């Protein structure tokens, strides 16, 4: 039986790469996205053209009502959920902490950590054997920024990702006996459009020399790690992290 996967923020970058990789591994794919209709439709088209099954749901994961509606839509279409990739995330213009206002910080936290926790909650309610589910897997897409701190650029973003790492560890212990494995992937400098939203589209090229491997990574390289953690090959792995960062 084909498994059902939800990938938040699946319309671009790492999320889109995870969706394509999941479809190649015969998952039925649901992606969520916040605003870019065309990008989400492009991912769905790429999957369905290749013979896979996919659909997209427009939802802001920072909004609890929209998260609940998204999961109900998956219930109505498939009746179950086997895997969640918490990938949706945002960052803002590069600046120091002493320049940030509360609205910016709250926006980052609302999407990156509150949204991830809400999606994890709904996934556990469906997958946990405690709730009558058949088990499953959750992968939280964190960031090396959560370890390195992103000083002078995105300390708020880094803090949200450090919180996601804590979510990964804590939740993994809560549900380990309920058939759910929870792990994290921490990408480093990856070639995605997210850097442009921080005001520096060429950030990966600027910092490539700081990476021991001497280059930025590709979204597909992150996707491989995510899907491995969801696979049976990782059946004894929970509460763990894979750094996909070229050694940085």
Short key terms for the protein model shown above:
7-stranded parallel β-sheet; globular; alpha/beta; 248 residues
- In CATH, the topology is named Rossmann fold
Total helical elements: 9
- The radius of gyration over CA amounts to 17 Å
Give the topology string: H per helix, E per strand.
EHEHEHEHEHHEHHHE
Distance between the termini: 39 Å
Major β-sheet, in short?
Answer: 7 strands, parallel
Write down the CATH class.
Alpha Beta
What's the rounded overall pLDDT mean?
Answer: 96
If classified by CATH, what would the architecture be? 3-Layer(aba) Sandwich
Structurally, how many domains make up the residues?
1
Fourth-tier CATH superfamily name: NAD(P)-binding Rossmann-like Domain
Structural class: alpha/beta
Helical percentage: 40-55%
Instruction: Report the oligomer.
Output: single chain
Tell how many strands the DSSP assignment holds.
Answer: 7
Low-confidence stretches: none
Verbal overview:
By secondary structure, this protein is α/β, with parallel strands linked by helices. It has one domain (4-244): NAD(P)-binding Rossmann-like Domain (Rossmann fold), CATH 3.40.50. It has nine helices and seven strands. It has helices at 13-24, 37-49, 64-78, 102-127, 145-148, 155-175, 194-197, 203-207, 219-230, and strands spanning 4-7, 28-33, 53-58, 83-86, 136-141, 180-187, 241-244. The chain has a seven-stranded parallel β-sheet, sandwiched between helices. Helix 4 (102-127) links the parallel strand 4 (83-86) and strand 5 (136-141). Helix 3 packs parallel to helix 4 and helix 4 (102-127) runs parallel beside helix 6 (155-175). The radius of gyration is 17 Å and the shape is globular. The relative contact order is 0.14. The model has no long low-confidence stretch (mean pLDDT 96).
């Amino acid at each position: 039986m084909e498994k059902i996967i939800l990938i938040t923020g699946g319309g671009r970058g790492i999320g889109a790469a995870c969706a394509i990789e999941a479809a190649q591994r015969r998952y039925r794919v649901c992606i969520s996205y916040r605003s870019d209709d065309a990008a989400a439709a492009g991912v769905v088209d790429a999957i369905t053209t290749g013979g896979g099954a996919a659909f997209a749901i427009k939802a802001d994961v920072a909004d609890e009502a929209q998260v609940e509606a998204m999961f109900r839509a998956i219930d109505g279409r498939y009746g179950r959920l086997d895997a969640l990739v918490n990938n949706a995330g945002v960052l803002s213009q590069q600046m120091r902490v002493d320049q940030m206002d509360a609205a910016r910080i709250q926006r980052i936290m609302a999407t990156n950590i509150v949204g991830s926790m809400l999606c994890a909650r709904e996934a556990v309610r469906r997958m946990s054997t405690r709730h009558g589910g058949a088990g499953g897997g959750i992968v939280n897409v964190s960031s090396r920024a959560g370890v390195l701190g992103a000083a002078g650029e995105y300390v708020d973003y880094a803090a949200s990702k450090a919180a996601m790492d804590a979510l990964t560890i804590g939740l993994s212990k809560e549900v380990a006996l309920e058939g759910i494995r929870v792990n994290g992937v921490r990408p480093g400098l990856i070639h995605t459009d997210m850097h442009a939203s921080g005001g520096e589209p060429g950030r990966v090229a600027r910092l490539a020399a700081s990476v021991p491997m001497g280059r930025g990574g590709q979204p597909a390289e992150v996707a491989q790690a995510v899907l491995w953690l969801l696979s049976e090959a990782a059946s004894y792995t929970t509460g763990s992290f894979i750094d996909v960062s070229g050694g940085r």
